[in-house]
């Protein structure tokens, strides 16, 4: 199965799809996903290959402040709507594009940071499939990026091409602060000096949440 089964993707944007399959054995299995779209070259076919292994769901707890918070999707979920993941939010989710500015988004995408507002401090639990690495598209200037399902050090973040990161990492907690860590469910400001990609990878022992 592929979740979601369809999506509207803006020009130069991206969308994460969760692919799930139940193999009969631990042997390698292959399959194809066909993407039908309204751009040139439709349809596109993607070949997949995988080996069945057990993947446990995790429960990640996000501590939220009263007022505005910088958040991100901490796990892969079947329903990635902002209202499903953060049901207590009293605002729409806002993402930032350096060329457009702020815009609302009904769904949350892995690797992207969002502004959300809450009327009181609270903790929200998110259940999903954990992910421990991600490659995030960034544009020249400031970007709000997401994080992984476990904490990583900012100094471990690499870029493609190399050397495009031109700022510290900034989180938000009733005010901006320079952060040495990327924490699950958080969003962060970062500046790059040219279009490229940031590579986030967790390499330590996986914590239990």
Topology:
Blueprint: E1 2-3, E2 18-19, E3 28-35, E4 44-51, E5 58-64, E6 67-72, H1 82-85, E7 93-97, E8 101-105, E9 113-118, E10 122-128, E11 133-138, E12 141-145, E13 152-153, E14 158-160, E15 170-172, E16 176-178, E17 181-182, E18 188-192, E19 196-201
Antiparallel strand pairs: 1-2, 3-4, 5-10, 6-9, 7-8, 11-19, 12-18, 13-17, 14-19, 15-16
Sheet bearing the most strands, described? 3 strands, antiparallel
Report how far apart the termini are: 27 Å
- The tally of strands reads 19
Q: Give the CA-based shape.
A: globular
Q: Number of helical runs?
A: 1
Find the structural class using helix and strand composition.
mainly beta
Mean pLDDT: 89
Radius of gyration: 18 Å
Low-pLDDT stretches are none
Work out the helicity level. under 10%
Strand numbers in spatial order across the main sheet: 11-19-14
Strand content: 35-45%
SSE order: EEEEEEHEEEEEEEEEEEEE
Descriptive account of the structure:
Helix content is 2%, strand content 44%. The two termini are 27 Å apart. The mean pLDDT is 89. It is mainly beta. Strands 11-19-14 form a three-stranded antiparallel sheet, with no helix packed on it. It has a two-stranded antiparallel ribbon with strand order 1-2. A two-stranded antiparallel ribbon has the order 3-4. It has one helix at residues 82-85, and strands at 2-3, 18-19, 28-35, 44-51, 58-64, 67-72, 93-97, 101-105, 113-118, 122-128, 133-138, 141-145, 152-153, 158-160, 170-172, 176-178, 181-182, 188-192, 196-201. It contains one helix and 19 strands.
